[in-house]
Design goal:
Largest sheet: 6 strands, mixed
Strand order of the largest sheet: 1-2-3-6-4-5
Distance between the termini: 15 Å
Number of domains: 2
Structural class: alpha+beta
Order of helices and strands: HHEEEHEHEE
Radius of gyration: 20 Å
Number of helices: 4
Number of strands: 6
Shape: elongated
CATH superfamily of the largest domain: RutC-like
Length: about 160
Amino acid sequence: MVQSALIATLLLSLLVSGCSPGEEDLRRMIHDEIIRSQTRAVFDPVETIGPYSPAVRAGGYIFVSGQIGIDQETGNLVTGGIEDETRRALENLMLVLRSAGYDSSHVVSTTVFLRRMEDYPLMNQIYGGYFEEKNYPARTAVSVVDLPRGASVEITAVAFKQTD
């Protein structure tokens, strides 16, 4: 859908400017657009605790791996309860997004994993401050038995923006 719109815009601009692309030019432009939209890139501005990438971009999408409340300077889980862990997990998530040229307005979906569902109201209060009101991403929140490093919360995200 996005590819079709971009190709149509490109063709329209060529026609309006008085240039008619040849059949070979059209094939090349379509091929280049498809290849560009399938480009995959890895972003790793935060430390990981296993064999995975903090984020992978595919076309206009970026898939951010689950972030926990790890202090990037010390490598330790922050202390202070669910509010501090949620804040740090979201800061780590935003750091990953920014490194790829995205921000919270591009997030279309998140998943929140909680060790204790009774922490949901406090997590939710912090979480809401990281996204623009009326532009919240879709979200799933689930309770789990355990999380890496004994964390209380882990948050993953998918973001999208048009690529150049």
